[in-house]
Amino acid sequence: MKRDGSKTARPTELVFVDDLEIRLTRKAIKNMHLRVKPPDGRIEVSAPLRLPLATVKQFVREKRDWIARQQRAIAASPRQEAAAASPEEVAQWKAVVSACVPALIEAWEPIMGVKAGKVAYCNMTSRWGSCQPATGRICINVRLALYPPECLEYVVVHELCHLLERGHGPRFQALMTRFMPDWKERRAKLR
Q: Whole-prediction pTM value?
């Protein structure tokens, strides 16, 4: 505890549980949390400040099969394929996405009552798209070529929705639900 009485998280420490490397963060929380994170399948554990290390290690051992399944899923995901792509592959993705997006925008603009500006195609590592509401410029991630077509359509509708609502708050979500009732299921396929 700090002198003012507040609790603080401790720095992340590296812990080995058998052959697994764990990033352990101690926090002022009640329960332990385990995550396997893309793109490399690293294992992160958040644990209560005073929980014994032996308890953390036992928890990780009990979840070993689940950890392995998550790491296999990450290794087989399109994200992993995208991370190792050649410039030629990226160019192919761009060709596919740029061939599909104009028709999607043309179909959705009258439904949504919006008009997109310039459309760009980028190889982005952390976003599926972006929108500049002031200019109407939309950027679509070419990596969407690796996902089912409904994911590309979801991102197009998402970015067009930003022409109506800048943020991601309740109004934005209501608009998404109105235009694309299954948007949450489509979004889940991108995670």
A: 0.69
